[in-house]
Amino acid sequence: MEWVRPLSGVTLVVPFYHMVGDAYVPHVSNLYQFRTMAEFTADIEFFVRHFEPVTLNDIVVALNGGRSLPRSCFHLTFDDGFREMHEVVAPMLRGAGISATFFLTTKFLDGGGLAHHNEISLLLDRIEAQPPNATTTGRLEPLLPAVQNAALRDRMLAIPYADRANVRSMADILEVDIDGYVRDKQPHMSSEQVKDLIRQGFAIGGHSHDHPLYSRLSLDDQLGQTRTCMEILDAKFGFQPKAFAFPHNDDGVGEEFFRPLFSGRSLDVSFGTSGFVAHQQPRNIERATMEKTSAPADRILTRQFARAAYHRLRSRGRAEVAAKPKAVPGSR
Hints:
Elements: H1 5-8, E1 12-13, E2 15-17, H2 37-50, E3 52-53, H3 56-63, E4 73-74, E5 76-80, H4 84-96, E6 100-104, H5 116-129, H6 134-140, H7 152-157, H8 164-174, H9 178-185, H10 191-199, E7 203-206, H11 219-237, E8 243-245, H12 255-263, E9 269-271, E10 284-285, E11 288-289, H13 297-323
Helix pairs in contact: 5-8
């Protein structure tokens, strides 16, 4: 990592997580592998050993030209606003003296439900425990996307946000009470828990209203999701600075999205999920996932630094080629 990091040009390291814990989580565990408490503890120790922690406000001040960030620094971020952020993650970070930002999906605060992919995870949990018979499978079939040669699990995971109503119809067929699960488990934080995080010195930000994939939305819907989320958070918590993290990824989001939000100060900074490869919009900072693997943090970051170095060197090579003077025909 120490060899490849300088080649990447990356000074600010922003990892992101969704969940931390040792327990099986029905609404998450069928979607991705998340860090155990031991793995997350090792991550914290790694980051503190190799990088200097900075706050969200430090990042925004640097973007505004107020002061420079340290040459090698990090800021931890957590998406979706699950209750484990308050119960598990915050105490661990506080014990290590580390700041972090928690990005919240506003519709699901205070028991407001689950994102459609988290509902799919619940259905997969039921199917794993009670495989459907032929009759039930036949009833599910019209609600599934047509993915050739794909297993039932993969077809369910492929259900897009636009067809999220199909997930509720499938829940009825499988006799899964999603609303009852939300009432019993309270999967997301309450407003009081978020206020407690703020009192402890943590930052919060927006993560859309109900977690769509932005590349599948029109520009108006992208802006609407973002503004609705930020307005709700501002009304509830009155937070500064204004930060936003894209749900899923920032693919399909152009300057026509960023320009009105940054110029109007609806946002001070945004975050994507494309590793450490620099985005064309300097206020949109790409982050690296620490999930979907049990690999140690140094291996994850080495891979991300190498990828960023490749893109940086390739861009530099293209710029040098473009800058070379064109040969005049017939000249030597």
